[in-house]
Amino acid sequence: MEEHGGRRWPLVVLAASPFHGHMTPTLQLAKALHGKGFSIAIAHSKLNPPNPSNDPSFIFLPLSDNLSAIDESASFTNFIDTLNKNCKQSFHDHLTRLLGEHNRGNKSIVVIYDHLMFFAGNVAVDLNLTAIVFRSCSAAYFPAFLARLQLRQEGRFLEEDYEMKEMVPNHHPLRYKDLPFSKAPIEDWKQLVSIISHSPRPSAIIWNTIKFLEDEALTQIHHHYQVPVFAVGPLHKITPSPPSSFLEEDSSCISWLDKQAPKSVIYISFGSLMTLNKKVLTQMASGLAKSNQPFVWAVRPGSVCDSEWTEFLPEGFVQETRERGLIVKWAPQKEVLAHSAIGGFWSHCGWNSTLESISEGVPMICQPFNVDQMVNARYVSYVWKIGLELEGLESGEMEKMIRRVMVDEEGEEMRVRAINVKKMIKEAVENGGSSHDRLEDLMGFILSC
Ligand code: UDP
To answer: What structural domains does the chain harbor?
Structure first.
């Protein structure tokens, strides 16, 4: 597998970002490319590093980031800015050293970088290497981001508009409230736009999505960048990968699920980053209690303001739900969603969670908070019609939503549509399917660089 048209196969260096929801699909992409025969190096920040023992055949390149933690309450934009400034020099040093070694073996290097790690793209371009960007968000997020940019430039999107339910003209199916970063302070938004303007023009784009699901957005992206776009998702279905969680998975929920009736349990999780208001969580607990439905609830320690773990729960909640509910710190989410006892997923609609849910045919309750989550929720509920979006944050509304998805006819109809999407995803990743074929095309593209 080392020779291609008389040339040695390039080393593929992937620059992974320290966010769990980015690291996991980047490592899955690395695994998929390794399975095709490429040697792989992973450049990563020292903050939230991947575990090298999961992938002993990869080279790991730690970058000096000088960062101690991701502070969810602080500015995301400042964090990205610092990350990019701090990691650039050590990435440059690693690449020049590797180039020295590989030139002697007549072997080139191709860089694939997470879109938040755009310094890696800039270094690659400076060194005359091919730079391919990897996007682990939904494709629909991109036109939504452009719409937000355009409206702001025209002075038509003001800070107080973020709750507007009117449709954005010419941007069907989005409402103003669905636009990315709609809740961010305007200064933060301006800074983000200015930082992102430093991203290089990539040679190609890899997207963790599926053609049939996001064809229109993928076409828009192709028109915008005029470079090849490879929709190779969902990567977790392309390549079986070991858990890459920064937290330890509590598998006890699987044996608990084994004892539950089919499609009877609602799974609740808000991902790896969100910090939630205690008042909202108390309403959730009370909605869950009133719904009378079995549940598995992943509550990440520290994810609720002023609570170390579950101290926010209303008095009597544990007692009342003991027979039908389980709370864990971190669930093996993909396994949970694939379990026959799961009938619904109450989610913040991060893109990984959304992909994992629809890949298993599980209808969703969408409670989005920021970045691409509102766009994803809009597609799940309004376009694909495989979920409902929570409009109010009171326990009564939550109880109603749980019943609509888990018990009512409406939920059954969503489940039928979701199972159809699951089937189509299965076909997309199989031999001859769109994602399978785009991965082959990506392999050809890398070899031609
Ligand atoms: N996840 C998990 N166990 C949990 C909660 C989340 O394994 O208890 C994983 C989930 O499978 C997904 C990722 O964390 O792959 C969350 O990514 P997503 O893009 O949905 O949200 P983010 O964390 O980026 O907000």
So the answer is: 3-243+432-448 (3.40.50.2000), 252-426 (3.40.50.2000)
